[in-house]
Amino acid sequence: MTFDISKTWCRKAGAREDGFDVGAGFIAADPMFTHEGGGAEESSEASRLALGRFINLMRRDHGLSIEALAEKADIEIGDLLCLENNAAHLPDVRTLYQLSEVFGVSQEKLMGLSGLTHAIDDDYVEEAVRYAAKSASVEVLTEDERAILNGLISVLSESTEHK
User: Fold this and answer.
1) pLDDT tens, residue by residue, 56-71
2) Is the backbone of residue 115 left (phi > 0), alpha (psi -120 to 50) or beta?
C-alpha cells in the first residue's frame, strides 16, 4: 500500500497542529505523555516518589494490604508494589485511574505526580514532594501524618476544571 501525500497537504496538516507538541515514538503513541529536557527526569522521579508515598499512606489509612488494594482497584499487585517502592516506575493511565477511583482523588493530578502529564499549574506536585519528605515510614499513621495526608487528599480531590 502506498500513500500519495503532497507538500501542500502536509503544510495544511501542520498548520492545524500549530501550538501542539508533535512527535514520534512514545509521545505519538500516548499523547498524554510529555517530556521536557533538563531536570524533568529528576523532577518526575521526585514526584513519583511522592506518588508512591501517597499511595502507601492511603492504603494504610484505609486498612488495606497491598493485595487487598490491588484487588479493590483491579490492578496488578506488581504494579502496586512498583508504584509504592520504585520512583523510576512509570505507571500506566489505567492504574492511576483505578487508584483515583478507590481513593476519591483527581486522576489528572495523580497523572501529574507520575510524570505522565505536565500541568500548567503544578503547585500540587511541589506540595506532594514536600509531603513525602515530611512523612516517615511507620506502621500506623501518626496524627501529624494523618493531618498532612488529609491536606494532600483535599488538594488532589480538587477538580482541575475550576482553575
Assistant:
1) 989 999 999 999 999 9
2) left
Residues 6+ apart with CB under 8 A from 24: none
CATH number, domain containing residue 145: 1.10.260.40
Question: Are the beta carbons of 99 and 88 closer than 8 angstroms?
Answer: no
Residues 125-148 pLDDT 10s: 788 877 777 775 545 777 888 888
| Within-domain flag for 101 | yes
Domain total in the chain:
1
Range of the domain at 122: 36-158
Contact 52, 86 (CB under 8 A): yes
C-alpha cell of residue 53: 508515598
Identify whether the C-beta of residue 127 lies closer than 8 Å to the C-beta of residue 133. Answer: no
Q: Which three cell numbers stand for residue 162?
A: 475550576
CA distance 148 to 141: 10
The rounded distance, in Å, linking the Cα atoms of 128 and 4 is 50
Please give the mean pLDDT across all residues of the chain.
78
Kindly state the cell numbers that stand for 109.
493530578
Residue 19 domain-assigned? no
Pick the residue with more confidence: 56 or 22? 56
